[in-house]
Each structure stands twice: as structure tokens, then as C-alpha cells.
């Protein structure tokens, strides 16, 4: 019971965090000369993911694959950011702090992720 409630809280918080990127995204789209196109594209993905995480908070067990995607994509993004942080000294602190935040998000989502339903296990065994 506490696990599902904790997951719902985390999904709402992470969903709001990712969705908050809409402000930067809109600014980047309104002033493309002042923005990095890679950052703009990444923000668009995170804003969309944030919206879907907010939807998943209603019924996390029905959105297991989305929660897993959010966790594992956070790990993948953290690896890329950490690599860049080690290669670009002037950006090191920002990239490594951002990586740490994404790793915490990923671990939290995996730890709190809903377990497979017994029907899903039976169909996986039969397949």
C-alpha cells in the first residue's frame, strides 16, 4: 500500500518536473537563434514524458512499461550527460549534478515500480 502511494507521489513530482520544461521549450521555440537545437528537442521529449507520467499516476500498475521507460531513459540520459561532463570541463558541474538527479529518479522509479500481475506472469510463461 505504501509502495503504490509512494510511486504515485514520485510520478506526480517527476511528471511536474519534466512538464515544467515547457517554459524553456516555448522560449527556445520563440527565440531559436538563442537556443541549442539539441536541448530543444530533448525538452520536447521530457515534456511529453512528464505529461504521461502525470496520467500514469492515476493507475501505475496499468502503466508499468511507461514507468520502466522513464527509469531506463533517465539512466541512458545520465550516462550521456556524465560523459559530456567529463569531456567539457566548463560544463562539468552542471552535467554531473543533472546526471545524479536522473539516476535518483531512475532508481526511485525502479524500486517503486508495480509488480507484474499474476495474469501477466502466467501469459509470459505460456508464451
Any chance you could write out the topology, listing elements then pairs?
Elements: H1 2-19, H2 22-30, H3 37-56, H4 64-87, H5 92-112, H6 118-126
Helix pairs in contact: 1-3, 1-5, 2-3, 4-5
- The number of helices is 6
The radius of gyration computed from the alpha-carbon positions, rounded to a whole number of angstroms, is 17 Å
Q: How far apart are the termini?
A: 31 Å
Let me know the largest β-sheet.
Answer: none
Q: How much strand?
A: under 5%
Assembly form of the protein = single chain
Backbone structural class: mainly alpha
> What is the number of strand segments?
0
What is the H-and-E element order? Answer: HHHHHH
Q: Quick check: average pLDDT?
A: 90
Low-confidence stretches: none
- Range of helix content: over 70%
**Overall form:** globular
Structure description:
The protein is globular, with a radius of gyration of 17 Å. The chain contains six helices and no strands. It has 127 residues and is mainly α.
What would you say about this model in short?
With 127 residues, the protein is mainly α.
Keywords, separated by commas or semicolons:
mainly alpha; single chain
Amino acid at each position: 500500500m505504501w509502495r503504490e502511494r509512494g510511486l504515485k507521489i514520485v510520478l506526480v513530482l517527476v511528471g511536474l518536473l519534466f512538464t515544467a520544461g515547457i517554459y524553456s521549450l516555448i522560449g527556445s521555440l520563440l527565440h531559436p537563434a538563442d537556443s541549442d537545437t539539441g536541448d530543444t528537442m530533448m525538452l520536447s521529449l521530457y515534456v511529453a514524458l512528464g505529461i504521461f507520467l502525470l496520467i500514469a499516476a492515476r493507475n501505475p500498475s496499468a502503466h508499468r512499461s511507461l514507468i520502466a521507460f522513464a527509469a531506463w531513459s533517465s539512466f541512458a540520459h545520465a550516462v550521456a550527460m556524465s560523459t559530456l561532463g567529463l569531456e567539457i570541463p566548463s560544463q562539468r558541474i552542471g552535467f554531473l549534478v543533472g546526471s545524479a538527479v536522473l539516476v535518483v529518479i531512475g532508481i526511485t522509479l525502479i524500486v517503486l515500480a508495480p509488480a507484474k500481475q499474476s495474469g501477466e506472469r502466467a501469459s509470459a510463461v505460456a508464451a
